[in-house]
Amino acid sequence: MPTTSTFLPTCVSVDLSALAHNLAQFRKGLSPGCDVLAVIKANAYGHGSVHTAKALIRQGVSRVAVVSIEEGITLRQAGINAPIVILGPVFHEQFTELFTHQLTPVISDAAILPALGQAAASLPTPYPIHLKVETGMGRLGLAHAELVDLFSSRKFPRALHLEGLMTHLADADGPATDTTEEQLTRFRKAIEIVRTSGFRVPLIHAANSAGAVRFPDAQFSLVRPGIMLYGYHTLPPSIAAPDLKPVLTLRTTIAQLRTVQAGHKVSYNGTFTAKTPTKIAILPIGYADGLSRHLSNRGSVLIRGQRAPIAGLVCMDMIMVDVTGIAGAAVGDEAVIIGRQGDEQITADDIARWTGTIAYEVLCTIGPRVPRLYHEG
User: Fold this and answer.
1) Domains 31-230 and 248-375 belong to one CATH topology
2) CATH 3.30.70.890 fits domain 31-230
3) How many CA atoms lie within 13 A of 178 on its CB side?
4) What number does CATH give the domain 248-375?
5) Using an 8 Å Cβ cutoff, are 354 and 294 in contact?
């Protein structure tokens, strides 16, 4: 949603200067000649894919990645002309849309190549694709034997151009390094199979955010940063992370205040009972906006630079917080769910810790009905 001057009681604020900062910090660790394939799937991890893509392209990012053709079409319809890589599976029924919008598919199943090649045969030039190799993630990708069969038998369709070869690291942020090292060994064997078959592949990529920082030899010609662009990482404490700034602030506004007496219950099923006279603030944000019900009676928000604990069950559209100890709390005050207020800060990592998940999920689940506002600094 574009920036607007209309009052918005609940909104996401996206700091594009922090995004640029994170990209610059990430680039400092890249080998010469290694480029960035910025991952903006899942609505740019909740930040808004169109504005995020445009901001990254202004910073010199030459190509972006999403997970589905639908996400790619959204970017094309917004006027984004940079190469768009589709990381997820592609189906026969989507070939026409793929070609029409000039989206670059990642092919993970050799069985689809003949049909894709046949569909591309009418195009004026070979159509670019990336091929994904399964090296240990146990998810999408060609197994070693399938790769050998494809290239040793010369089955790769002439109507397709092998622009990229990739894999995905399963444990780049784990406590040990052996799994990733084994994957990279398998991937190098895959690269050799393709090259000895006479293919020159310009784009080779394996590393996500953690992989690019922790395993410099996994950088190849491209890396695929995602979460680090948005100011977070999952590296173990022993690994120095880039200097990152959270890009997103999620805020809402006190809609009503009420004082409940000792013994009074708050929200569904009465899971919060006031022990003393308690001032409760009602905030217009709930699980339909991406605020997990696991935050019920745990976690807090920031009001007037102080932490206000969540009281009772998170509702679909509202939460209640205890502001008894916050002097002067009033209707219309800002309440920060994710972000900084005064000297206090709540991050997506904090919410992830309170709810037993990861920052990725916290950011990605911020709902589409929450407006995104964009600013520099």
Assistant:
1) no
2) no
3) 0
4) 2.40.37.10
5) yes
Low-confidence ranges of the chain (pLDDT < 50): 1-4
Per DSSP bridges, beta strands 334-341 and 344-346 are: antiparallel
Domain ranges in the chain are 31-230, 248-375
pTM: 0.95
pLDDT tens digits along 208-261: 999 999 999 999 999 999 999 999 999 999 999 999 999 999 999 999 999 999
Give me the catalytic one of 127, 132, 245, 268. Answer: 268
The residues facing 301 across adjacent strands are 308
Catalytic, out of 41, 45, 230, 287:
41
**41 is an active site residue:** yes
What does the alpha-carbon distance between residue 39 and residue 157 come to, in Å, rounded to a whole number?
28
